[in-house]
Amino acid sequence: MERTPEGTSVGVDDPYEFAGPCDHLTNDGRCRFAFDRAGHDPEFAAERRRDDYACLAADDEHAWRDCPHYRSTTTGRTCRRCGLEEVRIATETARPLLEEHHLSYHDRGTSHEITVTLCRWCHAKVHNSFARIDDDASPAPEAVAAREERRSREQAEFGFTSARERYGSDASARESPDE
């Protein structure tokens, strides 16, 4: 199983099994890296320019791992392992329920950044035990409790509260200025 530079498990044997499309891939199959960052790798950019900026991995001959600038970072809103959904309250600075989990590291012979979304509880299990990303797992009870507590606060923010409830029963007894 792949490991971090510190030696802890990342929960997968092959990070590319869990990798998504390249972050530099445009909707029309072109390589944004070669276009926007030509100065970082002029030889690569020139090769892509000759091929009308077509993504290297877009053809049948190459895979994501063949591209020197491949990167797949997560934008997930659910845990890849247990399915826990994120609940964020904009006005709070509480620690997120979900975190970005790296599956590959630069010093492991690859320059590819590959990440997936894991909840804090699955993230800890993967790094601290033999848990794998592809385990058939359910959310930890603590994770469900944290999510539901946030959902309750979120629902309270959306709820309607009348002036009588906010300011007390004497608010409705006040005379209007026209009387």
Low-pLDDT parts are: none
Portion in beta strands: 5-15%
Could you tell me how far the N terminus lies from the C terminus, measured between alpha carbons in angstroms?
Answer: 79 Å
Cα-based radius of gyration, to the nearest Å: 24 Å
* Element-by-element helix/strand order: HHEEEHHH
Please provide the count of β strands: 3
Overall mean confidence score, pLDDT: 85
Can you give the helix content as a percent range? Answer: 25-40%
Total discrete domains: 2
Strand order of the largest sheet: 1-3-2
Backbone structural class: alpha+beta
- By DSSP (H or I, 4+ residues per run), the number of helices equals 5
What kind of sheet is the major sheet? 3 strands, mixed
Bulk shape:
flat
Brief summary:
The chain is built from 5 helices and 3 strands. It is of the alpha+beta class and 179 residues long.
Tell me what you see in this structure:
- It is a single chain.
- It contains five helices and three strands.
- The longest helix has 18 residues.
- The chain starts with 31 loop residues before the first helix and ends in a 12-residue tail after the last helix.
- 25% of the residues are buried.
- With 179 residues, it is an alpha+beta fold.
- The model has no long low-confidence stretch (mean pLDDT 85).
- The chain has a three-stranded mixed sheet.
- The protein is flat, with a radius of gyration of 24 Å.
- It folds into two domains: 117 residues, no CATH class; 46 residues, no CATH class.
